[in-house]
């Protein structure tokens, strides 16, 4: 017992010494990257975050030459006409509506697929009633898993329906508040 205790104490002491002398060494890939002047992954992620923050929901729908911070020759912002502003707002809302409908159809297709798989398996099981117990257990497990997936998909679909209208209303409010589209209210 005493020798085991001493051995454990030695191991713990050695580990504490090792942890106290931790040094960070760069891998060969990091060294090469540093020599070539390429940014590290952290820097790349920061750059990516900066660019995604700068992305504007309305940029794709504005006419060319009109951006969020566009400036004309006089130093003022470029103004949209009433028709251009309305068209940009309508295109933005239509794109959102299309994305929401596409998402709903994807969920519905997956739900239909799961229901179809389950019904096929149930029909197959009904035809072969004289199956052994292991097949029964397998069938029950399949049914439980399929029902679980179906319930999840139904909940996703229901949640999507609930949030779709909210997202659409939020986008309308966002477009109404956007100063670049103020011309459509005049």
Task: Give structural notes.
It is a single chain. This protein has 5 helices and no strands. The chain is mostly helical and 186 residues long. The protein has 2 domains: 1-55, no CATH class; 79-185. The longest helix is centred in the middle third of the chain and has 46 residues, at 82-127. It is flat, with a radius of gyration of 31 Å.
List the helices and strands and how they pair.
Blueprint: H1 2-20, H2 28-36, H3 41-54, H4 82-127, H5 133-177
Helix pairs in contact: 4-5
Q: What keyword list fits this structure?
A:
mainly alpha; 2 domains; 5 helices
Q: In angstroms, what is the radius of gyration?
A: 31 Å
Mean pLDDT: 80
- As a percent range, the share of helical residues equals over 70%
Number of structural domains = 2
Structural class: mainly alpha
- Approximate shape: flat
pLDDT < 50 runs, ≥5 residues = 69-77
Q: What is the end-to-end distance? A: 90 Å
- List the quaternary state of the chains: single chain
Question: What is the tally of helical segments?
Answer: 5
Work out the strand percent.
under 5%
Query: What profile does the largest beta sheet have?
Result: none
Question: Secondary-structure element order, as H and E?
Answer: HHHHH
Number of strands: 0
Brief overview, please?
This protein has 186 residues and is mainly alpha-helical. The chain contains 5 helices and no strands.
């Amino acid at each position: 017992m005493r020798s085991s205790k001493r051995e454990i104490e030695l191991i713990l002491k050695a580990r504490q010494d090792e942890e106290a002398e931790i040094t960070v060494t760069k891998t060969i890939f990091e060294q090469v990257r540093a020599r070539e002047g390429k940014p590290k992954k952290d820097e790349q992620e920061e750059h990516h975050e900066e660019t995604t923050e700068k992305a504007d929901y309305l940029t794709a729908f504005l006419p060319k030459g009109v951006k969020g911070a566009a400036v004309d020759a006089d130093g003022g912002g470029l103004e949209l006409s009433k028709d251009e502003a309305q068209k940009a707002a309508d295109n933005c809302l239509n794109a959102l509506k299309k994305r929401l409908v596409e998402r709903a159809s994807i969920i519905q297709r997956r739900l239909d697929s799961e229901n179809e798989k389950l019904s096929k398996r149930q029909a197959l099981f009904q035809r072969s009633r004289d199956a052994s117990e292991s097949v029964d257990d397998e069938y029950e497990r399949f049914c439980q898993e399929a029902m679980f997936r179906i319930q999840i998909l139904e909940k996703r679909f229901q949640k999507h329906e609930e949030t779709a209208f909210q997202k659409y209303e939020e986008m309308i409010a966002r477009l109404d508040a956007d100063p670049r589209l103020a011309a459509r209210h005049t």
